Amino acid sequence: MFSVLDHRLSVPLNYSEPEGTSIEVFAREVIPAGGSDLPLLVYLQGGPGQESPRPMQRPAQPAWLARALQDYRVLFLDQRGTGLSTPFGSERDREDAARSPDQVATYLTHFRADAIVQDTERFREHLGLEKVSLLGQSFGGFTSLHYLTVAADSLGEVYFTGGLPPVGRHCDHVYAATYAVQRTKNHELYEQFPTLRSRVRAALDVCDAGEVLLPDGSPLTARLLRTVGSQLGFTGGAEKLAYLFERDPRSSAFAADVASLLPFNGRNPLYAVIHESSYGDGGVTGWSSDRVRPDDFADDPTLLTSEHIYPWHFVDDRGLAPYRSVAEILANHEWPRLYDADVLGSVTVPGAAAVFTTDPYVDLVFSLETAALMPHLATWETDAHDHNAIRVDGGEILDRLFGLIRPEGQS
């Protein structure tokens, strides 16, 4: 059993202008029975732009929570712009018609990992703690690495799951690598389900004919349908796709299921608008995933894409269309570097990272390059789990990570 405390803080939108615009950031503290004195573990969610999970008692959810509560209190942070924090893409935003695309884009430059780290520092201070530990999933791991770069003295232990980003690399390198893994995932999908490719091709043809409508009544384009390939990085994703394409693409069931599988949509525009900026370590992204798309992905429509964001997302998706100009401005923004290899090499905070061999979102080679910079980071490379392993086998994952940096028998 556990109890829950809610925390809300007013923080600067831009920490370099502390007296300027403020926003609210929300976090939920989960405390196991009798565990109010346990150290604090901050869960940093994937994304960017995804709200934190909502904890459940029975069965304990998310999957890793019961194991974590044996050793920690857990703070679930709704990263700025998400959940119960001041949201982006809310009715209030749409009512503010006076804001130009340039103003909105400038606003969103303060929603990356650097600001999230400073928000977390505010919560650490608010709770009166000298140190906190981190569990970073996917983009949460990117945020954790920046935390180690700028505020390692505030950290006790750091755990990464599918979230060791490259250091000093442009996102062009990252997207090129993710396409290569996604190609392999596609080949494995069609080998596992030999008749699936023909069904995918047929569905794409029906989309081209304008005969597939999403639940909001907008047409589903063929290129948007291909993005359901993002499921291939998750446990059970191949099966989800096989069963999706069993349905008549003109049916309401197909439309509802597809809408739930599209990686980018209007429910969470922040995820789409700033997504590409998180993939590289600074610089201008310039629609990287579109520019580096391999010829076979351009020529073969049955090659399903992954977490690749394209300019046409803001045309084809009705919910994202209002952000088209904002996304274009941000694609040409000069983003600051987030990581420093020299600093990371000197960090003594104990850490452990689960690195997934066939992860189509966070490249294995680049993750291991980053791990090699950090002498106090233990790495567990595994092909037995997918990118969402923490959500599926969370207790096992945490047991393994805790064991990497603690003497046997020490909790």
Q: Counting H and I runs of at least 4 residues, what is the number of helices?
A: 19
CATH topology tier name of the largest domain: Rossmann fold
**Largest sheet, described in full?**
8 strands, mixed
Task: State the CATH class of the largest domain.
Answer: Alpha Beta
The CATH homologous superfamily name of the largest domain equals Alpha/Beta hydrolase fold, catalytic domain
Give me the Rg, rounded: 21 Å
Task: Flag low-confidence runs.
Answer: none
Widest beta sheet: strand line-up: 1-2-4-3-5-6-7-8
Number of strands: 8
**Average pLDDT taken over every residue:** 95
Structural class: alpha/beta
Shape: globular
* Approximate strand percentage: 5-15%
Measure the end-to-end span: 19 Å
| Fraction of residues in helix | 25-40%
H/E topology pattern: EEEHEHHHEHEHHHHHHHHHHHEHEHH
What would CATH call the architecture of the largest domain? 3-Layer(aba) Sandwich
